[in-house]
Specification:
By secondary structure, this protein is mainly β. Among the domains are: 108 residues, Sandwich (Immunoglobulin-like), CATH 2.60.40; 65 residues, no CATH class. Helices cover 3% and strands 37% of the residues. The strands form nine sheets. The chain has a five-stranded antiparallel β-sheet, with no helix packed on it. Strands 10-11-12-13 form a four-stranded mixed β-sheet, with no helix packed on it. Strand 18 and strand 19 form a beta hairpin. The longest helix has 7 residues. The radius of gyration is 45 Å and the shape is elongated.
Length: 385
């Protein structure tokens, strides 16, 4: 005894999407049983039995590229003895919106199909989803041509809305539909190439690219077959995103001829690196040097963190020492260098550091308790300013 139980339908065969006198899409499908059928003496594998003479209902949904519905309808029919159904999408009972309100402007759309086998009492089951391209004949369209390639399209005596079918759009045997926009032929669907699933428009060369993007905007991208590269429009020109021109190395970086980014280059804006006790900066491989000639040292400003450099001599200042044999009652002494910063002057009497006051830039006076006796040794130690 034959048992038919359809859980998930096996295959959908789109025979064609065509234009009709009234708005709609011709839809044909072959429905097969999805399970093994038991027959005395043998079993027939799944997908080998036609679903013939069965009452079925279809729910068609036309979706946008984000899979949001434009339109939804239901239709009921009977499969023929070969398991075939033939319907026109757009002539069913609308469930959402109306078919006439769909904007067929060449943007990507999907036809989602669900089926209800009445004898199974399972309700609607997902059948398939397909990309669709459909343009109803417009009232202003006057011609519909079929040409071999793009160069064969007529460029004169066309009316806005004229359609043409190009059998070999990109010299790879891929067909596409184009429409006359009053100035030139343009693709009805830019993603006509099924081998290009990143939705990049493919151009044969720069001329073909410029024809497709007659007025490019910043961010437009195209696959250019002549260079085997992706090009992007930066607002002024087309750049190969893998070329040196498309990559800008700035702010202390440079790029070699192999497009490898390296440290080193002009700083075009301030650079700040924040560290903490755990994440600090360390440098290895620094050169050793014994000479202080022409050497600078690195300084860090404690408030701003700005790194600068200065000569070693500006940090380690020269010491100048003057030793004097004092006379009895002497308290004033001339310094070896002009006094600019008193803190850089130290005075010693017989080895003991004593205080002083500055009389002028060249004379200092010992504190009153340190007036010298004859033969006292006074040593003045002064650092260069």
């Amino acid at each position: 005894m034959k048992q038919i139980s359809i859980l998930v339908l096996f295959v959908l065969m789109i025979k064609g999407i065509a234009f009709a006198q009234s708005p709609g899409i011709n839809y044909q499908a072959l429905i097969l049983n999805s399970e093994e059928v038991q027959i005395p003496g043998s079993n027939i594998s799944e997908g080998e039995v036609l679903l013939a003479l069965e009452d079925v209902s279809f729910r068609f949904s036309i979706l946008n590229e984000f899979f949001d519905p434009y339109y939804e309808e239901e239709q009921t029919t009977i499969t023929d003895e070969n398991g075939m159904v033939s319907l026109i999408v757009g002539q069913g009972a609308p469930l959402f919106s109306t078919f006439d309100l769909i904007q067929w402007n060449g943007t990507l759309k999907y036809l989602n199909v669900e089926i209800d086998i009445h004898s199974q009492n399972q309700g609607y089951v997902f059948l398939d989803i397909q990309k669709i391209l459909y343009l109803p004949q417009t009232s202003i369209a006057s011609t519909s041509n079929v040409v071999i390639d793009y160069s064969s399209l007529p460029m004169n005596n066309n009316s806005q809305g004229d359609l043409a079918w190009v059998q070999n759009m990109n010299d790879s045997g891929i067909p596409a539909m184009v429409i006359w926009n009053a100035d030139t032929w343009e693709l009805v669907n830019e993603d006509y190439d099924p081998t290009n699933e990143f939705s990049l428009i493919s151009a044969l060369d720069d001329s073909d690219r410029n024809m497709r993007f007659s007025t490019p905007v910043t961010g437009n991208q195209v696959w250019n077959e002549s260079c085997d590269c992706i090009q992007v429009y930066n607002g002024f020109s087309w750049l190969d995103i893998n070329s040196l021109d498309a990559i800008v190395a700035t702010n202390g970086l440079n790029m070699n001829e192999n497009a490898v980014l390296k440290l080193g280059g002009a700083l075009v804006e301030p650079t700040t690196i924040n560290t903490d006790e755990t994440n600090t900066i360390s440098l290895t491989g620094l050169q050793d040097t014994m000479s202080t000639t022409n050497n600078d040292i690195m300084l860090v400003n404690t408030s701003s963190g700005v790194i600068s450099r200065t000569a070693i001599g500006d940090i380690f200042q020269e010491e100048v020492t003057l030793t004097i044999a004092a006379s009895n009652g002497q308290s004033q002494f001339a310094t070896p260098l002009p006094i600019i910063t008193p803190s850089k002057v130290n005075v010693y009497r017989n080895g003991v550091r004593i205080g002083f006051t500055v009389i002028n830039t060249g004379i200092l006076e010992l504190e009153p308790e340190a007036v010298c006796y004859a033969g006292d040794e006074v040593r003045i130690v002064q650092f260069s300013n």
